[in-house]
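Hi,

I'm pasting everything inline rather than attaching a file, because the server keeps stripping attachments. The sequence lines come first, and each chain or strand is labelled.
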Amino acid sequence: MSEPILSINQLYTSFRVDGETIPAVEGIDLSLYPGEIVGLVGESGSGKSVTSLSVMQLLDETPGEVTGGEVLFQGQDLLKFTDRQKRKVRGNDISMIFQEPMTSLNPVLKIGKQLVEAIREHQRISQTDARKHAIHMLNQVGIPRSEAIMNEYPHQLSGGMRQRVMIAMAMSCDPKVLIADEPTTALDVTIQAQILDVMRNMRDQHNTSILFITHDLGVIAEMCDRVAVMYSGRIVEQGSVYEIFENPKHPYTKGLLGSIPKLGAKEDRLDSIQGQVPTVEDRPKGCKFANRCPFVMDHCWEEEPPLFDGKNRCWLHEREEATE
Amino acid sequence: MKEPLLQVDGLKKHFVSQKGFRKSSKQVVKAVDGVSFDINPGETFGLVGESGCGKSTTGRMIMQMLEATEGTITFDGERLDQLSGKALKKARKDFQMIFQDPYASLNPRMTVRDIIAEPLIVHEMETSNGIDRRVYELLDTVGLPRKVAERYPHEFSGGQRQRIGIARALAVKPKLIIADEPVSALDVSIQSQVLNLLKDLQDEFDLTYLFIAHDLSVVDFISDRIGVMYLGKLVEIGDRDSIIQNPQHPYTKALLSAVPVPDPRAKRERIVLEGDLPSPSNPPSGCPFHTRCPFAWDRCVNETPELQTAETTGHTAACHLLDEL
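And the predicted assembly:
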């Protein structure tokens, strides 16, 4: 097995609000191998987006701070990089696309100018060549009349087109890792299908590794090779997409899968998870899922389970292993 | 055969926007362009479509929050579009709405008690002693503890706020509830709780729902019948199972095939639609879907297809190639 291109080891990130420290990510381990699409799934507040921002080191503008761990990219710890080194990596070796393409594009600059700027930041090529490359990238993501679009402003494009432009920009320097944070959440399903196709083609052609962050389990099943499920700042279960969907072990993963209505299933009721995600102050001392778990045991309230085999954070799993 | 509770016939909403210097040129946006359907008592009718198809505008016209440009709305034997003033206020008691955004639809300066009590006071349904009892009863019904009555909306999560919104809608014992994307702002584990709750309430209080949403899996779960909208028109309408298992209109087929299925082994025969939704201010001639339809031919460009019953399935779709595809 090859080396991971990106590995996140024991990452801790917290936010300082009114003098208090609020933990958002607490000890995440996750690896991304070349050409692989890994899904990071969780509900709001689970820490999935904070994980991606920590990797990209985009927390400077926020009260958030990485307080521990390392993020190794090709063996080097990104967290120890100087600003200059960071700039060299970001957008070049690792790029990111966000949920809302309108807020990630500059509204007063033409599409072409923004693309050329991104390309020339990392590659020493002429304006003309950069322009050619930009048009080539727009064609690759399936934008019709790409040359005309170079001279248009973001507001003139539809949501789907803007997201294509973002992908073209993110892929323009042929990154090794692409971090996609809810890239299709704001889009209609028929447009989402187009964008997912574009992303899959990009992976197939360039062997890009993708960290795909979403709350949509349908999208995960369709896109990902491996999946990590987050809850309350932790990974509670991870495995191949088949393990997670066909044989989920953690009660939270099971509950999440039971919660989604399945097309054509003619279900009368959904197996929902009771209660709601606890706020940081209300998180149980032991397992963070204890207050919502249908299988909760005394032990769960006392001590937090480790990630057994690196796969599943649940005491039931330990018991299963013992009986096997 | 029972009379339908709601009959919508030829409903249109054309927004006129004035453009240019001195607002000299007019542009007409046909948000809803001739929509007709019935909803029977006790039934859930799901209205589904992508953004801009006119599904919310349709809901708002039925709610009498927007005036229809054309068409009739008959509710419980009464022409809602002709009512006004006191008569309309009286009728409103029987149809209530649940909104998409649980953050924007509750007044932040009112307590939960006042929010739920307001419709009771407006419709003079309870004496002041009765109001408290009714508010507690409603909180029990939607699964919130009674002690929340004194709290304010900001203290609640999205799912709890949606429960407050549901309690408010139920307060006046309506016959019809129009729910416009009631779960799309919620996390999946909370979404499933609210969907289950809506089903339970329907059984308990014999409610009729008009359920408006973009998420086909959700609409499939909750509906008895489904109408699919595209660019202001209903393109297909019929029983839930018939629509989901045997879609007839090419747009419905594409929409269904685009829904991501939570099964990594699912075989996908995806129909990927080319291009974007055309603008409703400049809709295509003939069939509104012809610009993206993989089967479009001459007739589709020139002639708008009417809804007609498919021989194979018995439900209706608006396509020139019905029963031929």
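Residues 249-323 of chain A form one domain.

If the labels don't parse on your end, tell me and I'll reformat.
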